[in-house]
Sequence to fold (240 residues):
Amino acid sequence: MMMHYLNKALIFILVIVLIGPALVFADPPLPTPVGRVVWVKGTFKAIMPNKEQRILQKMSVIYLHDTLVTDATSQAQIAFTDDSLMTFRGGSNFTVSEYSFSKKKKASTGRFFGNLIEGGFRTITGLIAKNNSADYKVHTPVATIGVRGTDYTVYVHKGQLYVGFYKGSPCVSNKGQTLCLDNKTPYAFVPSDNAAPVPESQQPDVFKEKLNILEYQIQPFGGTGGGGTQGPISSFCISS
Fold:
């Protein structure tokens, strides 16, 4: 019996000796790619969860859990694998909190949850929001934004939130109340995190800056890192 336990102990030690170094020195899992940069004007960077920073350029890959940052005078557009398009204005800070996408699914194609900490963007949402609006949300320090297949713009600064409608049905929720925008109510203002959304008919000054979005579709990411294809260049400009 004693010999049996000694043999098992020797086998365990041998496994540790042979496999242990491989476990210690194994490469960390690769981050999940979710999109690419379409264009950059100025400085655009990504901060990973380990605080490592990457300077982003055209065609740079965007990964899950990246925090995307533009400086005060920069703009940049990214395209996600579900065909969502997003252009950031200067001074923006946005985290890709949760993202998954698969064209093989029927009822739901994935999830798109983001966190806009500061600044703003204009976005044309893709297949995730189109197939199931509950799978798309953008959280801000002030309120939460949901959509039903849409083109909208948002800006958050110093505890105040502005949302503008261009197409579809963006909805702003806070303090148990939800306001959905349309042609009759194209803008919403949330003055604080303790306030309900307020409808606005006039364009807020914060939306007078034009944000262009180029049509762009990327290839699914594969073992070689994926790719991208750009269709005919056409821009969608926010009217001043």
